Amino acid sequence: MVYDTLLVAAVLMLATVLVIIPLGREVPSGSLGFQIYLVVVAWCYFAISWRAGQTLGMKAWRITIDAGDQPPGWLATAVRFGVALISIGCLGLGFFWSLFRADRATWHDLASDTRLLVTPRPSRKA
Predict the structure, then answer these.
(1) Model pTM?
(2) Which band of pLDDT confidence, cut at 50, 70 and 90, is reported for residue 23?
(3) Which end of the chain is more exposed for a tag (fewer CB within 10 A), N or C?
(4) Which residues are registered as beta bridge partners of 117?
């Protein structure tokens, strides 16, 4: 999550620049339209990455997202993203929840009918 947070911060900075430069001025604080725009940009980063199988942060830890026979659909990524935000808003309770499940599923895994898989490290041959 830390890796992806840093990447999303960079993406949001770029998205902000793409709005501020053409406007030639700052965006008013509390602008609901701008906040929605930033949430959609963050969702796009995750949705595109999840549909490809993993985010860059997940790739570093050899984690892939599994939605069955095909990549998660756009609706599944939106549900996964929204429920993950709710989970974070509940002080991480949706993530903590996974510690008490045998399958380690979080709220957003359950809501989007996806799961995370860890690819074993390749063995080293002498």
Answers:
(1) 0.88
(2) confident
(3) C
(4) 64
